[in-house]
Task: inverse folding
């Protein structure tokens, strides 16, 4: 029975990793192309948003059943198999962010939700990038020796190299979030100006 359970978890983990890898490789490129070519709000953008949300929720849900390795939140507890720890909670946070971002997509006329949509989606993708970084350090032979540090005679994942890489990704995410918030603010400011002009036209008080 235990061997069957391990086999089931292995298949779940493989499927979840494949889905998450697809999101990591394609999601960012699609989001950036939408921002650059002005396709945001189009039918194609909405379809990609639905596909991204569905794939993310499915991948993160499957990852909750994978216990090959995790880092416990309680200090001093050992890392390894059978731990429901940091990575599982990050998967739950990702699901929450994706669902919140998808919900906000249909309510962007309101100021709060207009900011919530890009912020939540960007943070969800940022968590995926962080997961990809950990996977690369843990699985790529060239990077694996850089991923661990010896603490009290034990090898512990999360070396300074991993931390610095994650920090660089966090800085890039922060810059992107600031840019998106400025873009949303400018859009709503221009929209309000257009609405005010339309009201003046309709009332016959257009300045000469």
Result:
């Amino acid at each position: 029975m235990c061997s069957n359970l391990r086999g089931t978890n292995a298949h779940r983990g493989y499927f979840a990793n494949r889905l998450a890898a697809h999101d990591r490789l394609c999601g960012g490129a699609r989001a950036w192309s939408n921002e650059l070519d002005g396709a945001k709000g189009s039918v194609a953008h909405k379809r990609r948003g639905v596909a991204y949300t569905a794939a993310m929720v499915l991948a993160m849900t499957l990852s909750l059943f994978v216990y090959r390795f995790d880092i416990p939140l309680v200090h001093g507890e050992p890392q390894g198999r059978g731990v429901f720890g940091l990575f599982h909670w990050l998967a739950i946070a990702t699901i929450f962010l994706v669902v919140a971002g998808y919900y906000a997509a249909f309510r962007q006329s309101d100021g709060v939700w207009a900011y919530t949509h890009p912020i939540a989606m960007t943070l969800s993708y940022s968590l995926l990038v962080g997961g990809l970084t950990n996977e690369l350090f843990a699985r790529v032979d060239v990077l694996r020796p850089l991923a661990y540090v010896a603490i009290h005679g034990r090898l512990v994942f999360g070396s300074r190299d991993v931390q610095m890489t994650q920090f660089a990704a966090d800085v890039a995410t922060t810059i992107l979030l600031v840019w998106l918030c400025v873009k949303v603010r400018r859009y709503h400011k221009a929209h309000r100006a257009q609405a005010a002009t339309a009201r003046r036209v309709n009332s016959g008080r257009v300045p000469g």
User: Anything to note?
Assistant: Residues 2-202 form one domain.
